[in-house]
Amino acid sequence: MRAFQLQPKAATQIPEPPIARFFFADTRMAWLWLIVRLYVGYEWLSAGFEKLTGYSLFGEAQKGGAWVFSGHDGAAMAGFATNALKLSTGAHPSVQGWYAWFLQNLVLPNATVFSYAVTFGEVLVGLGLIVGCLTGIAAFFGVFMNLNFMLAGAVSINPVIGALAIFLVLAWRIGGYWGLDRYVLPILGTPWTGSLARPKKAALATS
């Protein structure tokens, strides 16, 4: 019977599948993520620019005007939250009760703050993805905003952009290879490696 007893095993790492490593960590696939991030970045920058200026990137006036610096800051956000609350009733509501509580008690009383947060968040995510700077972080916050829009009942293009942004998060190592990340990431490094641009202490000690 002792031969069938389960023995504790030391912790180990599960190796990354070659196909995943090829798509998400091989610089030969950086061109693919360049296309994806430019598209997703354009969508975010376009949405943020409209909220910031009241005009599209092509100069067309947008219904409702700007969300910020407009003299009626917070009105558009309050309207968005109010419409979302209307979707929280019925047998199968599009907006779940807990998220309706969030909209009612946090978003509506602070609509101006959320207007600025959403506007500048969209602009920064868009710019970060387009220039390829901190691509993984920009994509992560893009997914976060996409999730909140969908929880508020706004579908539109959000599922598509959100899904693509998730892939960009997975490809954070090469997503901005054809962009600023090619130079920024080696300088910043990661919490588990430190900066790759600074020489290691051990190397200095042996030199």
Helix and strand topology:
Blueprint: H1 18-25, H2 30-53, H3 75-86, H4 97-107, H5 111-131, H6 135-151, H7 158-170, H8 181-188, H9 201-206
Helix pairs in contact: 2-5, 2-7, 3-4, 3-5, 5-6, 6-7
Molecular structure report:
With 207 residues, the chain is an all-alpha fold. It has a domain at 30-56 and 72-181. 58% of the residues lie in helices and 0% in strands. It has helices at 18-25, 30-53, 75-86, 97-107, 111-131, 135-151, 158-170, 181-188, 201-206. It is globular and about 55 Å long. The termini are far apart. InterPro entries: DoxX. It is found in: Membrane. Its main location: membrane. It is a multi-pass membrane protein.
Descriptive key words:
207 residues; mainly alpha; transmembrane helix; DoxX; DoxX family protein; transmembrane; membrane
Average pLDDT figure = 90
The major pleated sheet works out as: none
Principal-axes geometry comes out as globular
Q: In percent, how much strand structure appears in the residues?
A: under 5%
**Count of alpha and pi helical runs:** 9
Chain oligomer state: single chain
**Span between termini:** 57 Å
Number of strands: 0
Decide which structural class fits the backbone: mainly alpha
Rg result: 22 Å
| Poorly predicted segments | none
Which sequence of SSEs, written as H and E, runs from N to C?
HHHHHHHHH
Helix content: 55-70%
Subcellular location: Membrane
Keywords: Membrane, Transmembrane, Transmembrane helix
Protein name: DoxX family protein
Transmembrane segments: 124-144, 150-172
